[in-house]
Amino acid sequence: MAWIAGGRLAAAVSEAGGLGIIGAAGADAAWITREIRIARSLTGRPFGINLMLASSEVEMQIETVINEGVPIVTTGAGNPGKYLDRLHAAGIKVIPVVSSVALARRMARLGVDALIAEGAESGGHIGDMSTMCLVPMVVDAVDVPVIAAGGIADGRGFMAALSLGAQGAQVGTRFICAEECDVHPNYQQKVIKARDRSTVVCGTSTGHPVRAIHNSFTWLISSAEKDGAGKEDLERMGQGRYPRAAVDGDTEEGTVMAGQVCGLVNSVQPAAQITAEIMAEAALIRHRLGGVACQA
Hints:
Layout (H helix, E strand, L loop, with lengths): L6 H9 L5 E5 L3 H14 L5 E5 L5 H11 L3 E5 L4 H9 L3 E6 L2 H10 L4 E4 L5 E2 L5 H11 L4 E4 L5 H9 L4 E3 L2 H4 L8 H9 L5 E4 L7 E4 L2 H11 L4 H8 L2 H6 L24 H19 L7
Parallel strand pairs: 1-2, 2-3, 3-4, 4-5, 5-7, 7-8
Antiparallel strand pairs: 6-10, 9-10
């Protein structure tokens, strides 16, 4: 959700009862400050920000987040260990994304506040374990709260996450099609038109696989990878392709990152309506299952 999950979306999700997250990626201090202040002007409820720790801007981003008093930071693409003391001293809770039990244990030992266990069904950079298998293993391995991510777009997915032992769920792909998302309409329509087998995983040989909706670019880079292109060449091919799709609207030559649940996303809706539908469906499922007897 980098480039597209700004202050408007974060505020709308928080106002609806969720926890909105601003996607910072490699953004500069001015952009981060602006989006934080937009969110704060639209909601009095807590919201967070996601930082990609591999970014060359991360030191500046950490200082900006502390100065602006954002209460929650989620992290990816790196180890937040060296920033924990500074963030905790500022009263900020730190929640890393993990894709394996070993990494979850390592993060828990560092003293993080919670974990996001993200399965390979998710969009963007992924690991290789499914959400169904990863979440309960992480829950059993650590003594901090676990949030499930990957393959969750409705009340069924939310209740499944709770059944696996998670204490919450992270939803990304469905909120690409929120009215408050700062994404090009072409990107939203690409997600809406996608079906069950519309996503592919590219870049496995680089060590940083990415899930995206199949298009001319994914065919090009997958072909290059099969033909033995090196890591540097593949990474060069992928440079700038995500903003090309998300910001400029080129959904054929850009990277349209989305999870496998894009087949469940059917329209552009206000974030409040998305959240309400998820929770209403979850409530119905909970009521129905309350009368289900389990027998060996």
